[in-house]
Amino acid sequence: MSSTATHIDITSAEKVKAYYELLKPRLSFLVVFSSGFGYALASQTLIGWVNFIIFLIAGFLVSGSSVTINQVIEQKYDAIMKRTKDRPLPSNRITESEAIWFSVVTGIIGLVLMFLATNMLATLLSFLSLLLYAFVYTPLKRVGSIAVFVGAVPGALPPLIGWAAASGVLSYEAMIIFGIQFIWQFPHFWAIAWVSDEDYKKAGFKLLPGGGAKDLNTAINIMVYTLFLLPLGLLPTLFGLTGLTSGVVATICGTLFLAQTFSLMKDISNQKAKRIMFGSFIYLPIVQITFLLDKI
């Protein structure tokens, strides 16, 4: 999928900056945070900091590779959306071939480092996450809201990868932290899709549930999935992974998050959806940090 615009000449510093932007650093750092959380939660002894840091770098590179492939595939759609038109590919600061090679190099280095610092299970899960995000979720965005379900899998894999990296196994505790992040993806994705609906429609992206409208039906879907976070947030306490404090904090955060969805159901507006979007960004790190601090 080649860009029709002419590539522009830029300085070396601008080129480096463009490559860095390809990695979507904010998203990739969130991936690193969640994978680091899973790693720390699974660790039964003091963390080996050298391997841990290499693991985080590896995760950042694999994430960066997958989002770069995403931008290569979606470059013509990014060019027509206001929020993405200045990305490296549509702005012609990076060519398609440069982006492809960059994704290959970062992906290979990331997976090799992952294997050297951890184990085969974590490496395979990382590779699976890359494949699902770049080659399954990305094209499905123009098909329908099934893309959100598929995208929620690689979106929830980072803590699972972290757990596998530290322990070498996938236990029920690992599935609990995967489940929390998996369900969290739905209100998170749908709130973003609601706020960006006008832009997404230009590109033919269909991420909202049901009929794809910003209506009460979508608000109810967001509420239902957010509601599931309440019992899920208690599972680490019930299964003895963490103490009572984290269960209380998760319940309070989940209740406040849920209250925002009722507000959207009452007032179908972009402003209320934006509050849910920001609420989702706050909920997950607070709950995960509390789980770590309250680890038994």
> Could you name the CATH class of the largest domain?
Mainly Alpha
Span between N and C termini?
Answer: 51 Å
Described by the principal axes of the CA atoms, the overall outline is flat
Low-confidence stretches: 1-5
Model description:
This protein is an all-alpha fold. The chain has two domains: 11-150, UbiA prenyltransferase (Tetracycline Repressor, domain 2, Orthogonal Bundle), CATH 1.10.357.140; 171-296. 76% of the residues lie in helices and 0% in strands. The protein has twelve helices and no strands. It has helices at 12-22, 25-42, 49-73, 75-78, 96-117, 120-140, 146-167, 172-195, 197-203, 216-238, 244-266, 270-293. Helix 6 (120-140) packs antiparallel against helix 7, helix 8 packs antiparallel against helix 10 and helix 8 (172-195) packs antiparallel against helix 12. The longest helix has 25 residues, at 49-73. The radius of gyration is 19 Å and the shape is flat.
Give the structure's gist in a few sentences.
Helix content is 76%, strand content 0%. With 296 residues, the protein is mostly helical.
Structure characteristics:
2 domains; flat; Tetracycline Repressor, domain 2; 296 residues; mainly alpha
Topology at a glance:
Layout: H1 12-22, H2 25-42, H3 49-73, H4 75-78, H5 96-117, H6 120-140, H7 146-167, H8 172-195, H9 197-203, H10 216-238, H11 244-266, H12 270-293
Helix pairs in contact: 2-3, 2-7, 2-12, 3-5, 3-6, 5-6, 6-7, 7-8, 8-10, 8-12, 10-11, 11-12
